[in-house]
């Protein structure tokens, strides 16, 4: 087995140290954070119980963990759509590209609530940059969030996300991300954007370049003023000649109620460079179960 470079060991210690420090610095949380900040964003992550920090190579990493963009080869595009039982709509679109040792990405995330809601909509966009050297990737995002109520009043705030990822070839990823650092008000009363620290680990039990697929992921999240949450996910499938099916299952606490743990299911249809994703989450709020659809394209 090839020995890992010393820099990998030092970076691993940095990740673990940041994870240990993160939760201790979290003060009490107000109860008015925009709902859009609590959603899984990625359909793939939704099917894995909400665990997404350890995933990489998807454009939605701009919202989850910017260092996850580091494994994109050329370009990645992703979009999702969701209609909830009470009439609320949610969409997301993101794209990213690689330039030498850098990756850049951006995306939007939008929710339109039903007519009876006190909130009209939530909107967020993010722009990310990542630098990769060896197996180590360092990334940061600027995140903008706005919330409009039913009277037309708008509040806007922004913050900074940061992430570090250790990508051990195609075998495994150890990642740590902190969201909503350095917040400031753009317009109106500041939004409550709770600081959230997440530590994730993803492991491929088989070579993903072969026909079989078997991946496991685990994530621990600390959000200020809330109990620690743990999420587990597993995906397995078969892809032959770049066409195949992958199934997913996950289990973990919901961000809106950390004491309530739920299972989730999902799957993907792989069609060469395009992947169609589906995820089901029970009792996801906004009128019942959530059925999410997504499309990913990589080149």
Give a description of the structure.
9% of the residues lie in helices and 56% in strands. With 299 residues, the protein is mainly beta. The chain has a 14-stranded antiparallel β-barrel with strand order 1-2-3-4-5-6-7-8-9-10-11-12-13-14.
Any chance you could write out the topology, listing elements then pairs?
Layout: H1 6-24, H2 43-47, H3 61-64, E1 75-83, E2 89-99, E3 102-112, E4 119-133, E5 136-149, E6 154-168, E7 172-187, E8 196-204, E9 212-223, E10 229-240, E11 243-254, E12 257-271, E13 274-281, E14 290-298
Antiparallel strand pairs: 1-2, 1-14, 2-3, 3-4, 4-5, 5-6, 6-7, 7-8, 8-9, 9-10, 10-11, 11-12, 12-13, 13-14
- The count of DSSP E runs of length 2 or more, i.e. the number of strands, is 14
Percentage beta strand:
over 45%
The number of distinct helices, counting runs of at least 4 residues, comes to: 3
User: Regarding CATH, which class?
Assistant: Mainly Beta
As a whole number of angstroms, the C-alpha radius of gyration is: 18 Å
By CATH, the superfamily comes out as: Outer membrane protein transport protein (OMPP1/FadL/TodX)
Low-confidence stretches: 1-31
CATH architect. name? Beta Barrel
Principal-axes geometry comes out as globular
Gap between N and C termini, in Å? 30 Å
Q: Helical percent range? A: under 10%
Number of domains: 1
* Series of H and E elements: HHHEEEEEEEEEEEEEE
Could you report the average pLDDT, rounded to the nearest whole number?
88
Widest sheet, order of strands: 1-2-3-4-5-6-7-8-9-10-11-12-13-14
Structural class: mainly beta
CATH fold descriptor: Porin
Largest sheet: 14 strands, antiparallel, barrel
């Amino acid at each position: 087995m090839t020995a890992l470079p010393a820099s990998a060991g030092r970076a691993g210690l940095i990740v673990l140290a940041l994870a240990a420090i993160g939760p201790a610095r979290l003060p009490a949380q107000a109860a008015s954070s925009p709902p859009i900040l609590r959603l899984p964003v990625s359909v793939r992550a939704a099917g894995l119980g909400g665990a997404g920090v350890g995933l990489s190579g998807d454009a939605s990493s701009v919202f989850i963990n910017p260092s996850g963009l580091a494994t994109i080869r050329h370009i990645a595009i992703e979009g999702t759509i969701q209609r909830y039982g009470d009439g609320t709509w949610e969409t997301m679109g993101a794209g990213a590209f690689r330039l030498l040792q850098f990756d850049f990405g951006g995306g939007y995330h939008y929710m339109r609530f039903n007519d009876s809601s006190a909130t009209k909509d939530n909107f967020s966009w993010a722009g990310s940059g990542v630098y990769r050297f060896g197996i180590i990737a360092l990334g940061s995002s600027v995140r903008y969030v706005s919330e409009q109520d039913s009277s037309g009043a708008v509040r806007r705030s922004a913050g900074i996300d940061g992430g570090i990822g250790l990508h051990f070839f195609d075998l495994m990823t150890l990642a740590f991300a902190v969201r909503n650092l350095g917040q400031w008000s753009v317009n109106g009363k500041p939004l409550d954007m709770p600081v959230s620290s997440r530590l994730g680990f993803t492991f491929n039990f088989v070579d993903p370049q072969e026909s079989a697929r078997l991946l496991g992921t685990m994530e621990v999240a600390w959000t200020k003023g809330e109990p620690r949450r743990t999420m587990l996910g597993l995906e397995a499938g078969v892809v032959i000649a770049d066409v195949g099916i992958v199934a997913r299952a996950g289990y973990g606490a919901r961000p809106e109620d950390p004491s309530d743990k739920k299972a989730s299911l999902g799957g993907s249809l792989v069609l060469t460079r395009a992947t169609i994703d589906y995820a089901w989450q029970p009792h996801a709020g906004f009128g019942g179960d959530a059925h999410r659809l997504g499309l990913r394209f990589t080149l």
